[in-house]
Amino acid sequence: MRSPLSIKLLIYSHFFAPSVGGVETVVLDLARGLSDQTRPGDSGPRHFAITLATQTPRGDFEDALLPFRVIRQPTSWGLKRLIQEADLIHVAGAAMIPILYGLLARKPVIVEHHGFQYVCPTGQLFQEPQNWPCPGHFTAGRHSFCLRCSSNSNRLRSIRLWLLTFVRRFLLNRVQQNITPTDWLAKQLQLPRSVTVHHGLKASPALVRIARPEGPFVFVFVGRLVTSKGLRVLLEACKILIEQKVAFRLIVIGDGPERSTLETTAHEWNLLSHVQFLGRMENSRVIEALEKSDVVISPSLAGEVFGMVVAENMQRGIPVLASDLGAFAEVAGEAGFMFRTGDAVDLARQMARIADDPAHTNHVAALARQRVLNCFSTREMVERHAAVYMQLANEANLRSRS
């Protein structure tokens, strides 16, 4: 083991830039932050030599501009060699192969959890094809539900995921550190040697929101159009609001496999005079739409371990109305609006209440931004990770000397 002041850290993330998603963003910010870590005082710099391994092709992304080395699509032998060269192994997500290789090489392995793979074969805690939140069938021993859980009636796939969950649980109980982004997730997983490190967001100015003229209240949904994101529940709530003659508009930003079905549903329910599907848009156009909006709605049914879309829009100074999933509730705290998960009637009630009190909505927006700045900074995220790495490196040094 090298000196604890100079640590060779291998970060494995199956998904990475140019792929876009929460995991990719967190990993990129973490690796960048660690690459420039220093420790004040006489002890001098605390240096992390970062190598990031990923299965994502480079595409047109410029790896050379990053302050750390990126190895894309390594072979099995190449991954083993990278692990042998490293002092510490950080696995973003419960990817079994790098965890296994790290344990076999007797290296300290840290796993950061971005899903529910320890307690759910699909990693989503979402029961399919019924499309409702899973109450925890696997941990309760109700394995017949897990074997029938599939979005496309693929029984063999369900069996394979179920079997692999036992292997993954065996490995995760033997790593040196498990990291969760919320205390709520830590309680769901109940893993040994677990610590909570909240995801961090880079500080950015609040959006200059355009004063809304007299007219309909504008709600926005931003995300992938998949069943677990709960957009159908939001459409049901819109149907209720129209029947109640509430003036509003809903803008849907994003794309996904459910888009055609959702647009058909909106047409059949006569919602298109109030609901507009804009599809996938460049970030600049998303910002323009948000500047003209009043509230962002995140109606997810399951699969959320932190709620990056909630935190991002809170930081922008936009109030968020979210389902009361544990992760969302922890991130929003007292600075967000909540409704009962999957309950269209309660969602419609909250939407109408928000639209009826814009002054309170603006007050919550200010609280939301301050909460993110205080609690979810990238700097704090990097520092907390660095402290974990330093402790494990010191412990490994002590073992090697004994």
**The CATH topology of the largest domain:** Rossmann fold
The shape, in one word, is globular
Overall pLDDT level = 92
The structure class reads: alpha/beta
| Whole-number total of structural domains | 2
Order of helices and strands: EHEEHEHEEEHHEHEEHEHEHEHEHEHHH
Total helical segments: 14
- The proportion of strand residues reads 15-25%
The CATH C-level name of the largest domain is Alpha Beta
Tally the beta strands.
15
Q: CATH-wise, what's the superfamily of the largest domain?
A: Glycogen Phosphorylase B
Q: What is the strand arrangement across the widest sheet?
A: 3-2-1-4-5-8-9
SSE layout and pairing:
Blueprint: E1 6-13, H1 22-35, E2 47-54, E3 69-72, H2 76-85, E4 88-92, H3 96-104, E5 109-112, E6 126-127, E7 132-133, H4 143-147, H5 155-172, E8 177-180, H6 183-189, E9 194-196, E10 217-222, H7 231-243, E11 248-253, H8 259-268, E12 275-279, H9 283-291, E13 295-298, H10 308-315, E14 320-323, H11 326-332, E15 337-339, H12 344-355, H13 358-375, H14 378-401
Parallel strand pairs: 1-2, 1-4, 2-3, 4-5, 5-8, 8-9, 10-11, 10-13, 11-12, 13-14, 14-15
Antiparallel strand pairs: 6-7
Helix pairs in contact: 1-14, 3-5, 7-12, 10-13
